[in-house]
Amino acid sequence: MKRTFYTVVGYTLGVGTGWYVQRRVKRTVEKVAPDQVVAEVRDRGRQVADAGVQAATRARDLAVNFREATQEGMATIRREHADLLAEFATDEAMHTGPARRLPGRGGTQPGGGFRPRH
User: Fold this and answer.
1) Cα distance between residue 26 and residue 29, in whole Å
2) How far is CA 20 from the centre of its chain?
3) Which of 37, 45, 63, 71 could form a disulfide with 33 if both were Cys (CB 3.0 to 4.6 A apart)?
């Protein structure tokens, strides 16, 4: 998540800086250049701005897709984990020793609770 955050921040700063530099160049060109050069710089500036908007949209879509894929993957992992726990709880052949789970997770303590059949 850090990499995604810093990528988005860096990209935003890059687009913002580009926009600012573009404005400064336009103002300077308008002050010193003939009308034809001014029009050309203005058109190029619009092209750059449009490309920046498109790139920002792609970056946002990528972040949304990444978040959705992560959520879907985590939900699948949770379902699979629950299925495995249910299968373990019902299949006595899997119980070859004391069930050992971490305290505070709803499981038994080592040496207590579940005892295998002898």
Assistant:
1) 5
2) 28
3) 37
CA distance 18 to 24: 10
Query: Tens of pLDDT along 23-52?
Result: 888 888 777 767 777 788 788 888 888 888
Strand, helix or coil for residue 103: coil
Residue 70, phi-psi category: left (phi > 0), alpha (psi -120 to 50), beta (remainder):
alpha
Tell me the C-alpha to C-alpha distance, in Å, between residue 2 and each of 5, 61, 62.
5, 18, 15
Domain ranges of the chain: 2-75
Q: Which residue has the tokens 């006595």?
A: 92
> What's the CA gap between 49 and 97, in Å, rounded?
66
Residue 20 DSSP SS3? helix
pTM greater than the 0.85 cutoff: no
Contact 41, 29 (CB under 8 A): yes
Taking a C-beta distance cutoff of 8 angstroms, is the pair 52, 44 a contact? no
Nearest one of 108, 72, 75 to 89, comparing CA atoms: 108
Rounded CA-CA distance 69/29 in Å is: 47
